[in-house]
Amino acid sequence: MTMVEDTIFSSPPDTDTLGGRLSRARDSSGMSTAQFARRLGVKTATVQAWENDRSEPRANRLSMIAGLLNVGLPWLLYGVGEAPPDDPRNDAITVLRGQVEKARQLHEETGAVLARIEEELLRLQRR
After folding, report:
1. Which SS3 state, helix, strand or coil, does residue 20 take?
2. Of 8, 22, 37, 93, which is most buried with the most CB atoms under 10 A?
3. Is 14 exposed, middle or buried (0-12, 13-18, 19+ CB in 10 A)?
């Protein structure tokens, strides 16, 4: 009986791009783009360019990124090996952030409507 040894090549590779894998790993870590950029000592725009595949991190930064995100360098570069787990809380957080933003917008709109009503009320009272 032959035993098959599991290696990083046992599973099909993650076919996402380097930027896509970087973005997923950062999301899985729970860090925002700005937090991640600060920890790496780069600008947020630099991380956004990496995640959108407009540029790539330099070689000396890649191992730092892999360590910070707790992923293997082979997975980050080539999609082979173990991917970071998806954190279901990230989806809930995204939904809640959207709801908070919508509530803020509605609050601002309500304030503007109330201000117009008060102005009209004062105008009518002066007559």
Report:
1. helix
2. 22
3. middle
Task: Give the separation between CA 32 and CA 35, rounded to whole angstroms.
Answer: 5
Band of residue 2 on the pLDDT scale cut at 50, 70, 90: low
What is residue 94's three-state secondary structure? helix
Binned at pLDDT 50, 70 and 90, residue 94 comes out as low
More confident residue, 1 or 32: 32
Helix axes 59-69, 33-40, angle to 10 degrees: 120
Q: What pLDDT is attached to residue 113? A: 92
User: Whole-prediction pTM value?
Assistant: 0.59
Label residue 90 by pLDDT band (50, 70, 90).
Answer: low
Residue 61 shares a structural domain with residue 116: no
Residue 30: phi and psi, rounded to 5, are 85, 5
Q: What angle do CA 49, 52, 54 make, to 5 degrees?
A: 55
Place of tokens 């790993």: 25
Same structural domain for residues 38 and 18? yes
What is the rounded distance in angstroms from the CA atom of residue 74 to the CA atom of residue 78? 6
